[in-house]
Amino acid sequence: MVQCWLLNSMTRNLRAIFLSLSTAKEVWDAVTQTYSIGKDASKLYELRCKALATRQNGTSLSDYYGTLQLIWQEIDVLRPSKMKCSDDVAARTTEISNERLYDFLAGLDHHLDRIRGQVLAEDPLPSVQAAYAQVCSEANRQATMLAGSHVDGSAMTTTLHRPVPRSGHPKPGQKELDTRQCTHCGKKKHTRETCFELVGYPDWWVDKQEKGKEKKKSVANLASQPLPHGSSPHMDQSALRVFPNTTSTSSPYPGSSDKGADWSW
């Protein structure tokens, strides 16, 4: 049964080499002699260099730690302990554990520098298994915080760039903007159908212009009179400020300079 299991675990080409052997022990011994590298120093050197050169490089912690574990297992096979004293075995086990802890911490990504320093500050140093658990906990915490900040940033960006709804209705308390413009005279706040130049000027509009004309005459007369004794130009300027729009351009119907507002009726 064991012999069948050994042969079935081989590829077809290898199975043909050991198929003629009669017992499982013969198969095992033949495979060991053929493929075992024994105490190959070059292989141990290669594995140690590989362990020191292994880096996380953005991969998951489980993948990085699993890669190191495979290397360490191969080293254990090639370098079995021959110590008999229990104290020596414990001391050597601690040394190996510390070496592997250094290998693991040295290859971590830079965002885990803080937890690496915390692990190295412990006395005594934890096992590589305990250190792996601490690093995983810190990595999960960082991932959670990063995800939360990303959501907050996205919400803020959405709020800042949220389009302002356009509506034809003014907001409460806001006066509706009159966008009408006459195609005849070019003035705003009325249309061609209600243009005074076409339909005639109403009486109230003429009266308004006459009042404006009289107002201008009063200001002009006041400005042309000589200043009383003791007065100053500053007093004259104060009087002129009482009657604004005295420099408006003339029109067929003198009055307010805001011609566009005359049509708001």
From TrEMBL:
The gene is LOC110757582. It comes from the Eukaryota. PANTHER family: GAG_PRE-INTEGRS DOMAIN-CONTAINING PROTEIN, RETROTRANSPOSON GAG DOMAIN-CONTAINING PROTEIN. This is Uncharacterized protein LOC110744914. Residues 244-257 have a biased composition (Low complexity). Residues 216-265 are annotated as: Disordered. Keywords: Signal. The keyword Signal applies. It comes from Prunus avium (Cherry). Residues 1-16 form the signal peptide.
